[in-house]
Target: M42 family metallopeptidase
Amino acid sequence: MNTLEFLKYLSNSTSVSGYEENISEYIVNTFKEYSDDIDYDKLGSVIAIKRGTNNVSNLKIMLAAHMDEIGLMVKDFDDSGTIRFTSVGGIDPRTLVAQEVIVHGKREVFGVIGTKPPHLQDSSDSDKAFEMDDLYIDIGYDKKTVKELICIGDIITINREFTELQGNSVTGKALDDKAGVATMLQCAKELKKLNHQADVYFVSTIQEEVGTRGAITSTYKINPDIGIAIDVGFGKTPELDKADSIEMKKGPAITLGGNIHPTLRQKLIEVAEEYNIPYQIEVESGPTGTDARSMQISMAGVPCLLISLPLRYMHTTVETINMDDIKNSGNLIARFISEITSDNLEGYLCY
Model:
């Protein structure tokens, strides 16, 4: 499977938190080629398992990247037939004005997000940012017809197509964190070329955007020796300080902080340098807000790493990432996994 085509399919598909089943089958069918078994946790996270060789000590490494995306949900109808909505996950209302949407009702219905024209706004409001309650969706029907097609609680996604940019960069909706799932696929492809002792669990987790829930339940199911979360970080743009962002096309960011096991992190850096894989350092002093945080504090605790992919315009409809960073991240993780054995694990986990 071509990693670019895989990511394109995921980005163009719908998997709002709580409704990830729309892409589960596609992920399963893709990972079957690179794994030995497929499993699920009870919430619906997909677990593709690649067995290691001579793994008599049952060594397990869990990779986690969330397959859910932020979105919207129908909450009410106006007398004119327009739809009021709320968010699922963290959405900035300023990014929604004039967007095209798909309302996933009894059938998919195209609509547009509107608000009061600037000509009719009070002068005191003209400089204020819109809030969610100021916005509505217009599908063109009257209220009676709208309610025949759409129910309160139906999900809504932005109508945005995945597009290739220059320099091997791509843009689309929900690359946070479908790019992480694509990185796991790249890692699985690379591992087919390598010997590794550990059983590797590629987990496409659910409901990360509303509380890293799938990472918790899947960690309890797997009980891994090491957890590696793959998510996105703030790609450098002109308005961002260097200390608050990571550079595009300069490789994965290896996170440093309390959520991350220090010796495993150092081993990951050594592997990157040994194989000339570009990398960056990302500093996060507290909980990372990713699946790594939930894996780390599940059960009796799991030593964790976090790989961050540089992504611009996070939680907008034009998230942008570079495919070279995905490839380098997947290859780095695969090389790291190949060097972890039952004989050296205890040494790496000692403080």
Remarks:
- The chain has two domains: 3-69+173-349, 71-158.
